[in-house]
Amino acid sequence: MPELKPENYSLISILVESKLVSSKSDARRVIEQGGVKINNEVVKDIEHTVPADSVLQKGKICFLRV
Q1: CA 19 – CA 32 distance, rounded (Å)
Q2: DSSP letters along 13-49, please?
Q3: DSSP-derived 3-state class of residue 10
Q4: CA–CA dist 47, 11 (Å, integer)
Q5: Residue 42's pLDDT is what?
Q6: How confident is residue 2, by pLDDT bands cut at 50, 70 and 90?
Q7: d(CA 33, CA 66)
Q8: What is the rounded CA–CA span in Å between residue 49 and residue 10?
Q9: Which of 65, 37, 49, 54 is nearest to 12 (CA)?
Q10: Are strands 41-42 and 36-38 parallel, antiparallel or unpaired?
Q11: Residues 3-62: tens digit of each pLDDT
Q12: Quick one: pLDDT at residue 5?
């Protein structure tokens, strides 16, 4: 049976699990300060979800394909 994958992922969870940030509180701080982009759009909502097949950017040089 194939593994089911969700269509949207929690932004904070992705940042922590990919080790782009050290903790959930660090993730919240980075998001609220405008340091995260999804598909070249700044995200400032900590409850934002990331759609599948997106490019996540933290800062200037950290990229992650979801």
Answers
A1: 18
A2: HHHHHTTSSSSHHHHHHHHHTT-EEETTEE---TT-E
A3: strand
A4: 7
A5: 95
A6: low
A7: 22
A8: 5
A9: 49
A10: antiparallel
A11: 556 677 889 999 999 999 999 999 999 999 999 999 999 999 999 988 888 999 999 999
A12: 64
Tokens of 41: 């759009």
Check if the beta carbon of residue 38 is closer than 8 Å to that of residue 54. yes
Question: What sign has the CA pseudo-torsion 44, 46, 47, 52?
Answer: positive
Indicate the pTM of the whole model.
0.81
Residue 32 phi/psi, 5-degree rounding, is -65, -25
The two three-digit tokens of residue 34, written as one number: 């405008």
Q: Reduced to 3 states, what is the DSSP secondary structure of residue 66? A: coil
